[in-house]
Design a protein that fits this description.
The structure is a homodimer. The first copy, chain A, is α+β, with helices and mostly antiparallel strands. Chain A has helices at 3-14, 21-31, 37-50, 91-98, 114-125; strands at residues 19-20, 54-56, 64-66, 72-76, 82-85, 102-111. In chain A, strands 1-3-2 form a 3-stranded antiparallel sheet. Chain A binds a DNA duplex through residues 2, 4-5, 20-22, 34-39, 41-43, 45, 60, 62-63.
DNA sequence: ATTAAAATGAGAATCATTATAATAAAATTA
DNA sequence: TAATTTTATTATAATGATTCTCATTTTAAT
């Protein structure tokens, strides 16, 4: 594991805010000012391949990178904001149905976040 | 609804194969040879906004478009192949937890498809 | 210390998607 | 129907995220 790989892993796991490659690049430059974006992508891909971090792709915005620990995502359909949440664990159900072929699952729940609901309410009333 | 919009809707609903914008463009050109790719994107966006079709975004490949009818997706981690599947319906559970804010959910289950499993077996034995 | 292998940096290239601006088609009104 | 307005379409340029290339540097192995 190279210093960059390690540091990127740290950043993704410390800042639980689903950073994009570019945001991780910015963070990393604080520590290693000469690092390049290509290196960030290389290491993010490597870490994803090995399964140390996970990629969260949401339509219409660049991929985000997230720690592995089991949790689901709430996505606001208005503003796109991503929030961690834990719904019931589907692993055993899926394992039962798919057998050894099963690897993982990704559950995204779309909703309107409180802030956007409020905005909508205000607009409707006018 | 314009002729293009209607036809694109038809294509997405007839061919259950999760076509990309470009593939839909190819299909549409068979009927309207002069249609442009921008029109395909415009109408796909319109249809998604209205909720008549849905976009399926998978990391590392262009967005795909799919009929609305409730089903989940199996994604092979090796070859990326997408398969329709129906797991238990989570709607009521999610509605209970999120109330009126809930809109929809997207469940992707990652696995190794039979074809890729076979390949892996063969390689392991060598 | 030498060689081989892997990682990095800088920037070019790619690919999907969106924006633009001119034209064409459709809808509305008179 | 003609004139006017609105909307959709085309072709192409622009954008933005990501990957590729290749020369250089770093790391590991002999």
């Amino acid at each position: 594991m190279t210093k960059y790989e390690k540091q990127i892993y740290e950043i993704v796991n410390k800042l639980t805010s689903h950073l994009t490659a570019d945001q991780i690049f910015s963070e990393l430059k604080k520590i290693y000012p000469s690092v390049s974006l290509a290196t960030v992508y290389n290491n993010l891909n490597k870490l994803c391949d090995v399964g140390l971090i996970r990629r969260v792709s949401i339509e219409g915005s660049p991929d985000r990178y997230d720690r592995i620990s089991k949790h689901d995502h709430l996505v606001c359909r208005r503003c796109g904001k991503l929030t961690d949440v834990c719904f019931e664990d589907l692993t055993s159900t899926l394992e039962r149905q798919l057998g050894g072929a099963f690897l993982a699952y990704d559950l995204k729940v779309f909703y309107i976040c409180p802030a956007c609901r409020k905005k909508e309410m205000e607009q409707t009333q006018i």
